[in-house]
Specification:
single chain, 20 helices, globular, mainly alpha
């Protein structure tokens, strides 16, 4: 029924709401990273304490992804998104009132859990209301919104000080009311309602989608009931029917992306002299560092859409492996250049290749797993990059000795990941219909059968 609904105004409502989520969440994420020196100064954190702070927040983010996936597959996509956004607003405003490091760290970790809850269901909801040949376009819009949010976060947060960062974070969290309210007026995913055996509600939602897209609803329109499904959102069911090995492989690839991106951006800040402001312990980012990082953001607007177009033409697997190969080539080239605008552009293409691979992996995950487990799989694999990012600060320290080492290391691992994807990721989901139940998944075939 969704495939017959075409792609029009009905899907635009979902895309606008979700794009606002991605814009604000990536803006929040980048702001959080850039403000770390200010927060260290505010609470007088030592290096070891700052490391614990980072580890806790990243593990909390991973836990939030798991919880969000579980909630999305059991209580519904819309409810999970609204729950995460409202919790984020409440907890962020509580955290900025904290007066000691322990309280702030605990509340900040809870805020990251709320952040993690939002994302899996946001992906699932939008994918489930779009036709197969337009899913890549939806992910492209999300990627552009997220990159723009990250750029705005970097632009604004570098001006924050000890006197303004609390007010700024409070104002940013208040903006989350916008996607929360827009999600409230959206319909639930008809695919989710179908697997929950709520056929009357699903038929009403599909009828409204058709009407908004200018399609006449048949007079005797009804959806076919699905066979009984497994417990929605069950991690035990996720690792049955041949999905365990595939899930572990996708988690590895996404974790490698986390290592790449975090290592590279930390390294970039070392290269362009963030530590030169060590006499200003609360300084967040110099103008020179920001201008070079801004140049590194620009290629993402070209590389990420190109990767998704490639994924629609050649397939998801080919696009993922090509992205890692591009990343390896350009990062290797950037290691031979001195710090300069040319270096930033070449470096930016290398980083964008890895970020684009992440976008295709998320799209692939949403298509590969059935409706009854889609949010769980999205949460598990999407948040796996935070596990990889926990080792990134230690790798980036090598840049203090010689700035080429982290880039060459990441380039070598990117090549290894490219080979891993080619040899170990076997299935293709290009233009395949979404599955309803994990029992429909055939682990012996190279593509997903409906």
């Amino acid at each position: 029924a969704i495939e017959r609904s075409s792609f029009g105004r009905a899907q635009a409502y979902y895309i606008i709401s979700a794009s606002t989520v991605f814009f604000l969440e990536l803006m929040n994420l980048v702001t959080d990273g850039i403000l770390l020196p200010t927060i260290k100064c505010e609470f007088n954190l030592q290096s070891r304490e700052a490391t614990v702070y980072l580890l806790l927040t990243r593990l909390a983010f991973f836990a939030g992804g798991l919880l969000g996936g579980r909630f999305g597959d059991s209580m519904g996509r819309r409810k999970s998104i609204m729950l995460g956004l409202i919790l984020q607003i409440v907890i962020t405003n509580a955290s900025i009132r904290a007066t000691d490091a322990i309280t702030y760290t605990i509340l900040h970790a809870l805020c990251k859990i709320a952040f993690g809850i939002v994302m899996p269901s946001t992906y699932s909801l939008t994918v489930e209301v779009c036709p197969a040949n337009r899913r890549y376009l939806v992910k492209m819009i999300f990627g552009i919104a997220g990159t723009t949010g990250a750029f705005f976060g970097a632009s604004l947060s570098r001006h924050y000080s000890q006197n303004t960062w609390r007010t700024a974070l409070g104002a940013l969290s208040a903006l989350c009311f916008l996607p929360a309210m827009s999600t409230f007026v959206l319909d639930e995913s008809p695919r989710f309602l179908t697997v929950q055996d709520r056929l009357a509600e699903a038929e009403a939602v599909v009828a409204r989608i058709w009407q908004r897209n200018g399609i006449t609803v048949p007079p005797k329109f009804e959806l076919k009931p699905e066979p009984p499904v497994e417990a929605c959102g069950s991690f035990r069911e996720l690792f049955k029917y041949g999905l365990a090995r595939l899930s572990a492989r996708l988690m590895y690839v996404m974790a490698m992306k986390g290592v790449f991106i975090t290592t590279l951006y930390i390294s970039l800040q070392y290269i362009f002299g963030r530590d030169s402001h060590s006499h200003e312990p609360c300084h967040t980012m110099s103008s020179k560092t920001f201008s070079q990082m801004a140049l590194a953001f620009i290629p993402d607007y070209l590389v990420m859409p190109s990767a998704l177009i490639l994924a629609q033409r050649w397939g998801r697997k080919s696009s993922i492996s090509t992205c890692f190969l591009i990343s390896a080539v350009f990062l290797g080239a950037s290691s031979l250049l001195p710090p300069s605008p040319l270096f930033s552009v070449i470096f930016g293409v290398g980083v964008s290749g890895t970020a684009a691979a992440r976008s295709v992996i998320v799209l692939y995950t949403s298509e590969l797993y059935p409706t009854s487990l889609r949010s769980v799989a999205n949460g598990l694999i999407w948040s796996s990059d935070t596990l990889g990012s926990t080792v990134a600060p230690f790798l980036a320290e090598y840049v203090v000795v010689h700035h080429a080492r982290p880039f060459l290391l990441v380039a070598a691992v990117a090549i290894a990941t490219c080979v891993f994807v080619i040899r170990r990721i076997e299935r293709e989901t290009l233009n395949q219909p979404l599955l309803s139940s994990v029992r429909s998944f055939n682990p012996t075939t190279e593509s997903v059968k409906a």
